[in-house]
Amino acid sequence: MTGEADGGAPTPLRLEDLNVPSGPCAHFERYDLLRDQAPAHPGVAGAQDHPFLLVSEMADIRACFQNPAVFSSSAVVPHTPDPPYLWIPEMLDGRRHQRWRQLLGPFFAPSAVARYKPRVHAVINGILDEVAPDGGCDFVADVALRFPNTIFMEIMGLPVADASTFQDWETAILHVGNSASEGSLAAMREVVNYFAALIRRRRAEPRRDMLSAATAWRIEGEPVSDEDLLGFCLLMFMAGLDTVAMQLSYSMLHLARHPEDRCRLVADPALWDGAVEEFLRYYSFVSPGRKAVTDTEVAGCPVRAGEMVFLPLVSANRDPKEFPDADKVIIDRRENRHLAFGAGPHRCLGSHLARQELLIGLRAWHERIPDYDLDAAVPIREHGGQVGLDNLPLRWAA
Known about the structure:
- The protein is of the alpha+beta class and about 400 residues long.
- It has a single domain, classed as CATH 1.10.630.10.
- It contains 16 helices and 15 strands.
- A 6-stranded mixed beta sheet has the order 1-2-3-11-8-4.
- Helix 5 packs across helix 7, helix 8 packs antiparallel against helix 9 and helix 9 packs across helix 11.
- The longest helix has 23 residues.
- It is globular.
């Protein structure tokens, strides 16, 4: 990944080279190679060559997440250290971030997640009723992008009928180019315009959903502004329509490639909880960034104020210093303190819901379709940016 420039200095990484579309899991393997070479790598990103530092080892990545006084969340991607948008609450720091999490907490607390469970079962079983008789499907399109997304859209109060349009916008924002590209910014504007109209409707006719509740939220006595409300909606839209879908897809890719693990899980469903945690560890596709607010250093490398650190979770979670046999999926692994949901004050608020959906979705599939394999005639594609699978062709005996 890094070579020698003419003067003998290391050639910096280019973020765009890391993010080129590839075969399945190639992006994870690139991070593995980098971690084997060094604990940190200088890089540049975007048309303006913004400098950043890619951090490879878990101890350093965790330390960055846990030090928000030095590493701000006001920017979260290396190619956009001064973003023209604000994703709320992801890009907030300090007290303001805490207040937003307090407002969101009741929707994602374990008690709330438990109430969603019957609906989660109903949605996945309805999808399986359609898919199982066909003897094959593209798991990404036919299951992963329908199942958790339906649940999230219902919680948020978004019309499920608009799901395909939302997915087109999601792809443009997260998977094509970068978040500073004109295509991405145009898609964000479409999302914001959509939510502005929906917020007006919810103010006039509130419902029992998160968006209606949000229109009445107050922070320290002041109503949430429309601008902040739209920043919140933009983040919820992006986080809710991609993360669980991609984690499900990588889990199913693994089980299609490793029938020995699949057979163990089918024979002993008590193993599923641990297997879900191991899939979260090994196939962590989220790569957040943080912006240094003062001159500092990470892994012995200088980082100047205003520069970004890039923190690929999969690199942390496959660090052999932290996990025995880190390069292997061990579905009954005992100690598994992974960082798939991040760490520090910004640790993923939706982790309880995500775990529930992963567990219910994977168990329900294997109760109905325990034996399947990959359709070798169809290449599997993986996109960069927010890494994920474009497709996953599966087949089975109907």
